[in-house]
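Quick start: what a row looks like.
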Amino acid sequence: MPSPATSAHLQLTTGQRYVELARPWTLAALYIGLAVAGWWWLAVPVAVAVCLAAFVQMHDAMHNALGLSKPINERILTLSGLLILKSGHALQVRHLRHHGRCLTEDDPEGAPANWKFSRVLWQGPWHILMLRRKSLRIAPNTRRMQLLETAFTMFLLAAFVALYFLLGSAAGLVYWGVAFFMSATMPIWASYIPHHVASRNPAARAAAAVAQVWTPVVSSFAFHHVHHYYPRVPTALLYRAAAELPPPPEKHHH
């Protein structure tokens, strides 16, 4: 019999899979349209939404939770990572280490969760930068792919600069600025807060109540402990896993 986390009830339907795959790219197209129109007051929030949606898609790809074949899943991992100017395979290396050795000294991704919040604020951005080197050391077998994805991110940055100087469009640079901000603050919203807010916390309970509205915003926060226990459940279905599966212990993640 399949395990609860891999049963058909907790896998994406074909329609849900299309939605999850299309979401960040649809938002990216919307951002481009708004940026071209000069509606920056809308374009910038949409750029934030693009980064969040891409992060969730990349995260589900890390855990093979999208129900895709391995070759397609690998491509999605790369492409969604590039959408937030990251190496998807480098992030996967660290994230799987985080799941296997959660909040130990050998968990570089989870390290900020053990720091004081003031340290997360000032050291977090530098920590994110140094994690790229740690990924190469942890998984030298994916070194080529990690370096290739890093080269692609550098190419995108160069293209954004060229777009500005050649065509006068700041769309690429503004998007890079948003992606950089989201990356620099990742130790806060992807590490410190999820591991310090228990599911019974009022904020987490409120997030859980609205998690079905837009999963990239709230599900990873509201059901972080559920994800650690059932990592193969897609983010979009974590609310269902939380309601129907045996509640996981939280002591190892807080």
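That is the whole record. The first helix runs from residue 14 to 37. The chain has one domain: 4-253.
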